[in-house]
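Quick one: structure for this chain?
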Amino acid sequence: MEVLPDADVDAVEAIEGVFLTQGAAGNEASIQRFVIESGAEVPEHDHPHEQVGVITEGALTFVVDGEERVVEADDTYVIPGDEPHAARNDTDEPVVGYDIFSPPRANPDWQE
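Got it. Here's what it folds into:
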């Protein structure tokens, strides 16, 4: 078993107001923590990884295929690989959550 203590990993501001922390990565999946400040947006993008996540604090608005969906604390979601998607925090509070990627998305270039 491999453990990656949170204190050993620095958050990266991938986009203004969007902080990502790369967590553990195995052979089949990886996990990342995110904090999205009030008013911050993740522009539309896609990647080959299936993305399964959970919001632990706040509410995040996703835009997938032109449809907006609000995902709130304790809600889970899945975005298929290669599906274009965007997200934004329309609330006054930060949004915190975790994404699991399969195959693993270890050491991504956040500027892609």
